Amino acid sequence: MAIGLRNQWGAAKNVTITVNATTNGIDNQYVEFVSDKEVGIDDIGSFGTQNNGFKYNESKTVVGVEHPIRVKIKDNAPNDLNIQFNINYKAKNGLDENDTTVYRQSYDTTYTIHIVKGIILSGEIKNDVTLTEDNYYIVQNSLFIPKGVTVNVEEGTKIQFWASDQYSVYGDNDIAYISVQGRMNFNGTESKPIELFTGKNFEDYRVQVEKVAPGTIDMNYVNIENPYIDISSGSHLNFTQNYDYVKKRAYSNGGGTVEEEDSPKINATYLENLKYRICAQQEMNWLERNLLLVENLTMYYLIIAKIIIVTLRQIIVLF
Fold this sequence. Notes:
Strand content: over 45%
Strand order of the largest sheet: 15-17-20-22-23-21-18
Structural class: mainly beta
Shape: elongated
Helix content: under 10%
Distance between the termini: 51 Å
Number of helices: 0
Largest sheet: 7 strands, parallel, barrel
């Protein structure tokens, strides 16, 4: 860490900077300080500045530091972890030798980093690929699978939609979804279903997976939060919705993106063994939604005033 101080009072001497790392007010067990947590810097004159040894290039950009505070994030740190670094200083009065008081900063200066531990999926997949259980995937922005490309998703694979922290740099304007013009096969099993879910602080956003002609999407044994899907076929799908409405992002005419409320969508040519549960009015009580079977095994799926038509074999409703 390179840290600079600006002195806005009288001269200071014996200036020391101290850093610690916490999560929710508790020392973070995944942060290891490679160097000392405390570093001394030169005395600072009235209204002067000082740092722990900034190194500059010819354009006066900081490119290094002589006396850094070094930290290491441990390999077993979980995804979606916020780490807050708390920076404080202490100093003595540089104008009065008789003043032995050690003055400290009243409140810590804080800086938070967010751990994203996974493989980022975005842009266009240009070659056949298999997503495996031993990796953690994050759909950071739009993901496109073009015609002629096949993506296979193995049993037990976890795919997170939306950036984990909505205040992160990459999470401000991204629109997370998968669009398939080629082929995408979700090959989950009963013992190891595939998980599609939203990231931390995006729990009320939708999980969007849609085919674009002539694309094909087949899903088997997949658990999906806040579904917004248009697929070819699905078997043993388990849908969960925690809110009456889910959010989406759309590009605005003035640039950037806007957030809007939307209804979920389940559209497929063929479905069997479907489960759906929904929590209404943001209360944690599961409520049944009416599912009406009509002739030719076609189901009108009524939810939040949106009607989706699918072909059906078996429906199970959870409370």
